[in-house]
Amino acid sequence: MMRVAFQGELGAFSEAAAVRLWAGARELLPRRTFAQVIRAVETGEADAGVLPVENWIAGPVPGSLEALREAAVIEVVASVVLPIRLHLLSLPQADLARLTRIASHPIALIQCRAFLGKLPGVATVAWYDTAGAARDVAAARDPTFAAIAGLDAAERYGLALLACDVQDHPDNHTRFIGIRRCT
């Protein structure tokens, strides 16, 4: 069974990229950081990894590219471009007018600047992952706390959609690369 590491939690866009890049039997290995994805591939803990490298709105994904530059025995073997639709998610009883904070990955927050600018008084909080933000919003059980993430995260963590397609441009896409250990 192929083991594929990706940055983020289950429900992340990187998980969707892993499924697209390596169809069939696989074990998905969520990792908190881009460096941990590379380390898992370098050490053989994972057979392959997935990294987001460029978003059409936000540009290059800095943490991913920095981790890739540090890698010693990694090669890029595949790539895929996925559409990125971002949604405002919270508990079913939450109300947009009562939100006090919104969490998401810094790149996702950049992709939603126009939407977020219409919410004065709501703090944005950088999180390590969109799906991780959704998971943590669900766990907090606080109706004033929301996440910006994808539908997969909403479904996985039982969150309601407070606003759909909050990204600034409808043609939002991210390029993901598949990596393996050099042979």
Output mean pLDDT: 94
> Count of DSSP helices?
7
Estimate nothing, just give the exact number of structural domains: 2
Low-confidence stretches: none
From the alpha-carbon coordinates, what is the Rg to the nearest angstrom?
16 Å
Strand proportion, as a percent range, falls in 25-35%
CATH topology of the largest domain, by name, is: D-Maltodextrin-Binding Protein, domain 2
| Cα end-to-end separation | 19 Å
Name the CATH superfamily classification of the largest domain. Periplasmic binding protein-like II
Shape: elongated
Helix content: 25-40%
Largest sheet: 6 strands, mixed
What is the helix/strand order? EHEHEEHEEEHHEHEHEE
Per CATH, the class of the largest domain reads Alpha Beta
Question: Can you count the beta strands?
Answer: 11
Give a verbal description of the structure.
- With 183 residues, the chain is α/β, with parallel strands linked by helices.
- It folds into 2 domains: 2-83 and 172-181, Periplasmic binding protein-like II (D-Maltodextrin-Binding Protein, domain 2, 3-Layer(aba) Sandwich), CATH 3.40.190; 87-163, Periplasmic binding protein-like II (D-Maltodextrin-Binding Protein, domain 2, 3-Layer(aba) Sandwich), CATH 3.40.190.
- The protein has 7 helices and 11 strands.
- The chain has helices at 13-21, 34-43, 62-70, 106-111, 113-117, 130-140, 151-157; strands spanning 2-7, 26-31, 48-55, 59-60, 74-83, 87-90, 101-104, 123-126, 145-149, 160-163, 173-181.
- Strands 1, 2, 3, 4, 5 and 11 form a 6-stranded mixed β-sheet that branches.
- Strand 1 (2-7), helix 1 (13-21) and strand 2 form a beta-alpha-beta unit.
- The chain is elongated and about 55 Å long.
- The mean pLDDT is 94.
